[in-house]
Amino acid sequence: MRQLVFDNDFKDIVDEKINYWTSEDDIPQKVKDFIKKITDDVIIELIAEDGHITPYCSHCLKELDDNYYCSHCDKNYFKQKDDKKYILNPYVKYINDIEELYVYFYVFDVIDDYIVLYNIVATLEYNHMAPLKYKSLKLGIKQIYDVKKDGLYEHIEGEDLKYSYIDKFYENADGEKINEDYVSNYTYFELPYDSNLFLYVDNLDDLKKSPLYEHSQIWKLKDYFNKNDDLLLSSLTYNPIHFPQFEYLIKMGLYNLAIYCSQLEITNGKSFKEAVGVDKKYYNFMKKHDINVSQFRILKAYPTNNYDLIEFIGTDEYIILKLKDYVDLYELKKYVENNNQAQNRINHFINDYYDYIMGLIKLGVNLKDKKVLYPKNFYEEHDRILSEIIITNNPELDKKIHNLANILSLNIYEDDEYIIFPADSVNSMIDESSQQHNCVRTYCERVGNNDCQIYFMRHKKDRDKSLVTVEVQNGKVVQARTRFNNEITNDQKKFLAKWEKQMIPIFKEND
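The structure corresponding to this sequence follows.
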């Protein structure tokens, strides 16, 4: 056990000084052997501008063959090629530009009942002047953390037992920071931004010596941690110490839920269902698939033993779970799988399908008819329903858009490649929105009131195929976007600039 001792000035009592590792010489040989084994197996991949990937040997920087074999080193990397953690993607164009590559490791050290966590950086250095293999390995202590009951602290070298607290704030979807009063739900600690992150696990049993970890069962995660790409410091430090559900979930073999247990509401209920919120008949299913937090939420909202269905719901969990009140999700999954339109744009399709169902409800259509729920030509039906809703809400709107288009036709313009003309109906705007995957259909009322004007820029040879959606206000182009609201090309910009110069501004009557 460490003792309390006087400081150098005999003015205060402090903890006895910890013998921290400070250099490569301090790192235990077993840890060094582990690091060397990992770094010997890494593959270097260069990604060309066209997306083509070329694998290289991390020893000699020679290109690997199709079987990930290096004839120069007589080394086979085949087992590592499918493991992302063993892949290094340096930001260089040519392999001979590589001078250094980095792989990060975390290692626990248990000193009596005191826990230290080291972040070690392994640097692969390359000497291009050497005639033979030119890789060398250098180890450095990147950061030292003290694991304590109230959190994880960054040790400042040279200032004994003075710490700066690691950021425990969680940013929500709106970018707002939630302070540590909310830490029971979200606890994350900073990590090096690198997927090449490994944990040394051979000494996890030593954590049993610490009162902090004696009941945590974290040593059961040895194999799991070295396979997991999303290693969080909180899953090693704060969570096992502060969340009773960590031990419970580990004992149940639900490892993925355990390491993210800060995001779960697990109680001390007497039964599995009371504690976890899911009927125990789903336990073996949860364990078999090692379900994650998102899948667990889905299972609670939509109990099922169909893992493929849970995966499908996870493509857009919020929208699909809203649909469960109107359609059979298994039938919806089959419909999506057999629909080419859906397969080409799955996330957008789910949102469009939800809009379609809400449209059917607004129009009072019978949802028990499967031909209505799952039409053969989905987007034709989708656009027809939206058109009906818009025109039903404002019967004069289509006529107003058509009348405005007659005036805006003064601005029809073309060159050798492109033509631009105004939207002339509600249906034309819905069609544009559907082809472009944008929200221009919501502009119908604004266009009808001439608050803005919508033009379609197309290839002359294919006038029916959407290319660029253009918004004009006061005789000026304010927006021009291609599919999915992407930027237009330089050629398209030049065409619009020429068109804008000769455009006749069409203002509202009261302007």
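The chain is about 35% helix and 20% strand.
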